[in-house]
Write a structure and sequence with these properties.
alpha+beta; 4-stranded mixed beta sheet; 15 strands; 25% helix
């Protein structure tokens, strides 16, 4: 009796799963990344079963910007990316309406082996939003990241703090990987805000990594806008490499709206160094700070003034009589007697003279002076 009951249950269950289903998804909002597909049923439909079995030959409707997945027992069975109606080619649930009578008989035999009930098969249709998600802002963390600023003309080579901000858009490029890594076995909807904060931190990390490409080249303050494209490309490559392998997400577009020095003091320092270099006439030194030309000093050629030497006799210091050496100097108490040539005498003409002849008449000094 048990086998007969199982046979009747297997035939009844298999016949009940012969109906073909039609799955669709309404338009998803921009912040919805994934949702569960809906089976079209109406008041006149006899296919009201909710046994999570998608019969072979069923239709999956896919719109532009969507991708449909058939997940069987947690495994991605089929992926539909072509817009329009897609036919399910699943061997797990054969149907007579699809012309697979042999498959139906195998399915009945399998059901009998499980006691007449359907085998443990659970198939679900999920829709993934493949449209770009726009308007995601980003900015540098903690007020800025280090940036090497160089200027060979002024000899400037310092690390300053740079700020960077902008927006980016992304899209799901690998729906199967996105389902396995992000939203496996989810409920009705998966929203972007559930992973927004985590993705924001990863974008900030990508900014710091991308600035290394700029740091290796060095940058002048006035040439910062020229490095926006380089920084954008470096960020896209870094994020695609990380997000593509982890979540099946790629950057659709990225635009930097601001790339500048955060501190006014850093900007003033760079401008001051360039201005001083211009005023000093520095330049052309590629290996180190430019050297200013040496200052010129005016030195007039004035002939030197010759001053003849002046002999100043040494001061006489009075000493005691006992300190005078014999034969060199006469003590003050012993003055020499005046010589005869210096004696005053009177000539016969009445003129008084000191020499040997009279200055008036010219007569010689007599031997005996009156």
């Amino acid at each position: 009796m048990g086998i007969i009951k199982a046979a009747f249950g297997a035939i009844g269950g298999s016949m009940g799963d012969q109906w073909l289903e039609y799955f669709y998804c309404d338009a998803m909002k921009g912040d919805v990344l994934a949702c569960r597909g809906r089976k079209a049923t109406g008041s006149r439909s006899a296919n009201t079963s909710q046994n999570d079995v998608i019969t072979e030959g069923s239709t999956i409707a896919v719109a532009d910007g969507q991708c449909a997945l058939i997940v069987e027992n947690g495994k991605v069975l089929e992926v539909f990316t072509t817009p329009g109606e897609n036919i399910v080619n699943s061997q797990s649930a054969p149907s007579l309406f699809n012309g697979n009578a042999r498959g139906v008989m195998k399915d009945i035999g399998r059901r009998i082996a499980f006691g007449g009930d359907a085998p443990p098969i659970k198939q679900v249709v999920y829709y993934i939003n493949t449209k770009p998600v726009f308007g995601n802002p980003f900015e540098t963390p903690y007020g800025g990241v280090p940036l090497r600023m160089t200027d060979y003309k002024s000899g400037l080579d310092v690390d300053v703090t740079a700020v960077c901000s902008g927006v980016y858009s992304f899209q799901i490029s690998d729906p199967a990987l996105f389902y396995r890594k992000v939203c496996a076995n989810f409920g009705a909807l998966v929203f972007y805000n559930q992973m927004q904060n985590h993705m924001k931190r990863e974008v900030q990390s990508a900014i710091a990594k991308a600035l290394t490409a700029v740091n290796e080249r060095g940058v002048r303050l006035s040439k910062l806008p020229q490095y926006v494209e380089i920084l954008e490309q470096a960020m896209i490559e870094e994020l695609n490499k990380e997000w593509g392998a982890l979540r099946g997400i790629t950057i659709d577009s990225l635009a930097i709206s601001q790339l500048d020095v955060a501190s006014k003091a850093d900007r003033l320092m760079a401008q001051t160094a360039q201005r001083d270099s211009m005023f000093l006439g520095a330049g052309g030194n590629l290996t180190g700070p430019a050297q200013a030309p040496p200052a010129k000093t005016y030195s007039p050629q004035v002939p030197p003034v010759h001053i003849p030497p002046v002999n100043i006799p040494a001061a006489r210091v009075p000493q005691a009589n006992s300190q005078y050496r014999a034969g060199t100097q006469t003590p003050p108490s012993q003055k020499p007697a005046p010589t005869a040539a210096l004696e005053l005498w009177t000539c016969v003409c009445g003129a008084r003279n000191r020499g040997k002849f009279c200055t008036e008449c010219g007569k010689a000094k007599p031997n005996k002076v009156n």
